[in-house]
Amino acid sequence: MLTEVQAGPYTVRGISVGGVYTSLQVPELDVVLDAGIPIRSFAGSDRIFLSHAHPDHASGLGSLLGIRRLLGKGAPTVYLPAEIEAPVHEALGVLTRLHHTDMDVRTVPMLPGDIQPLGQGLHVRAFRTHHPVPSLGYQFIRRVSKLRPEFLGLPPQEIAQRRRAGENLLIEVDHLELAYATDTLARVLETEPSLFDSRVLILEATFVDPKRPVQDARDRAHLHLDELIAQADRFHNEALVLMHFSQSLGPQEVHALIRERLPSTLAERVHVFAPESGRWFG
Question: pTM above 0.85?
Fold first, then answer.
């Protein structure tokens, strides 16, 4: 069963259970974030972003490509850490031979700090996450042109005249729309402080049980809710989507613990990406 939350202007839908599978879709941006499980309704998105190559985040890619082929879709664009580009092509080559079906993709290898245009003013910036294997997070940026402050009070006729004369009246402004960070140490909040200012932040919170020490999360290169609580006043996001919870707790327990433990100023902006009832595995 898929989970869906409305986080500010963005819909986040999919499924995420730590160590099992994670695949999310943000339809307003036409992006799929990780492919740990093939979800048929995601097959229409032409842009797939892989955070890293662990199976619970990448093993569904071949099946997702197979679904796309059945639907008559062409090769999607897969954005991924540069270090895993060749192995991903090798793995898809093996699947091509096994299934006698082309697993074609266009890959865009990215390094921390790389920015790629996605069209219509949307860009994506890769940033380093902190995991034992090559891994990235992604920040989606809306770049808009605005009139320079010194020209704001001018009458329209003069602005038009200056434009015709070739004067540069515009500046580009970046709006940090949505960021995605999974499978990472809390250190990512220090190395990428702009995450606190993204309009929407999708962030892993694998461990939420206060009985589980923070060091357990750090030993596994994941985040503990305690580490987010300690920095609660730094989150300026319109919406914070917490996901990738450990299967050691049921979804209802996760909801209850987060509601109980987060300070109210942050809790009112948090969306728990887990079903309200039932189990993780249907």
Answer: yes
